[in-house]
Amino acid sequence: MSFDSSYDVIVVGSGAAGLSAAISLAEKHKVLVLAKGTLTGGSTAWAQGGIAAVLDAGDTFANHIDDTMVAGAGLNRRETVEFVIENAPEAIERLITMGVPFNKDEDTLHLTREGGHSHRRIVHVDDATGWAVQEALLKTAEANSNITLLPHRAAIDLITGRHEEKFSGSGRVWGVYALDQQSGDVEAYTARATILATGGAGRVYLFSTAPRGATGDGIAMAWRAGARVSNMEMMQFHPTCLYNLEVKNFLITEAVRGEGGHLKLPPGVTGGGERFMQRFDAERMELAPRDIVARANDHEIKRLGLDYVHLDISHKPPEFVREHFPNIDEKLTELGIDMTKEPIPVVPAQHYTCGGVLIDLKGRTDLPGLYAAGEVSESGLHGANRLASNSLLECFVFGDAAARDIMARWDEFDEPPAIRPWDESRVTDSDEEVVIKQTWTEIRRFMWNYVGIVRTTKRLERARSRIALLREEVEEYYGNFRVTTDLIELRNLLQTAELIVNSALARHESRGLHYISDYPDMLDEPEDTVLVP
Ligand code: FAD
Ligand code: SIN
Q1: Ligand 1: which residue has its CA nearest to atom 36?
Q2: What's the pTM value of the predicted model, to 2 decimals?
Q3: Pick the CATH number of 239-349 from 3.90.700.10, 3.40.50.10490, 3.40.50.620, 1.10.3720.10
Q4: Cα angle at 65 between 63 and 66, to 5 degrees?
Q5: Which ligand approaches the C-alpha of residue 211 most closely?
Q6: Best probe residue, ligand 1, of 152, 198, 398, 483 (max atoms within 8 Å of C-beta)
Q7: pLDDT per position as a tens digit, 423-436
Q8: Could you tell me which residues come within 8 angstroms of residue 283 by beta carbon, excluding any fewer than 6 positions away?
Q9: For 273-319, how does the pLDDT look when each residue is reduced to its tens digit (9 = 90+)?
Q10: Whose CA is nearest to atom 53 of ligand 1?
């Protein structure tokens, strides 16, 4: 067991939020960044469409704020929306300084359009913006001697007062216990402040565009340590994930619709080959907010017993399509689909976790010493439905805000006390790894079937009973066997599933992403579904 407390701040996660925080903090402090798996394994590297910011003379902050509030269906916190949107141009400037090669039309940034946006305001790097951002942030962090990057460390739990040698039992957070995924050892990493930037929980659903590691670890860890969690029922489903029997989670960016793509019924059914969005949102059609388009696709697929609907941009010139979407075109070509000539089969899939660990405008959680930023958090920006391309933006703004608050309040943060080492008594390796995998699949399947795009109270209650049964089994595993990444993730996945179901059952209305047939209308005043541990 090695023990290192030489870092000032620990950042858990190396995506857009974690690295933004680390880079700002490194102006003054020594920062340790931990990542589960590789340093590029989060959602950030997979982002396609781009980043929303008011950069065009014909656009205003007020427009972007209104669009965000409309998409969020009255659940956003206005001060957060204003804070993030007003800081967006500066965040883009910082990325440009770090070398992100945003697309340009001659001397000005090229702005694309996505659903719910009243103006063109999405900066992008072709259709692979996330990869360019991840690379630039990583290069900047690697070049900074105040930042230590440690991949293959899966945080298990937050270290709090109950882990102190001289037990204080306080909620003060001192860092994390983390599994070295290569050696199998568990180490205690301590610091004066900790930032959770662990991303979302998409993999709690059977079909998701999110990477394998999006298992809600940060949300579950913060909840177990005593922090409030909110808006977990607001799970965003993207309308257009590729339907393919081999490739299950390839996103077809919303920018395809932004640049003129149409949703159509496939041939062979009444209305085959024709657009259908006029029946769901006659004014905005394919550019309606994501919840409306995803529900429309889901409705048509179920109504007609289809496997998918079509997304068609083949009416645009082939050079235009290839120039705007080179990576998607390449991937589809590999799979035998020519998007310049034929429609793309698409289905809705889980895409983004709007809820998370409740934070204030400085990224502070309920627990002293613990901050959160990015998809793990609920800052008030997205409300009941995230506006496209506002997520990366939130990561940059809140990663930096958390860092600035820590630097400003540095003298208030004590040195961590002596911490008890990880309990090494659970040395037995489980010979039932297969059970962990099966339970994981079971959770993802019932969450998809019972807690998906359209919900009912009965189905939610059914999901809750399943979770209660599995909880006993998983806790027994966790209590008796050596921890592995799969076991850590399964425990967190189950915890996150429970939070989603409990939030969904606490809301007696349909709002934004939460559609429940028993309560189809939206209440005048939204209910408060913040969960308190
Ligand atoms: P992530 O980038 O997901 O990073 C999480 C980090 O935490 C990773 O380093 C991971 O290893 C680490 N981690 C997780 N658990 C642990 C643990 N237990 N211990 C240690 N480390 C841990 N948003 C936009 O604004 N524009 C887009 O165009 C866009 N396109 C998208 C396309 C796809 C396919 C997907 C899935 C999402 C897209 N999003 C987009 C959403 C956006 O990419 C994410 O919300 C955002 O990147 C989240 O960043 P993050 O830093 O919060 O987390
Ligand atoms: C997309 O490119 O469609 C994803 C954009 C987002 O999730 O904000």
Answers
A1: 210
A2: 0.96
A3: 3.90.700.10
A4: 65
A5: 1
A6: 198
A7: 877 666 666 677 88
A8: none
A9: 999 999 999 999 999 988 899 999 999 999 999 999 999 999 999 99
A10: 199
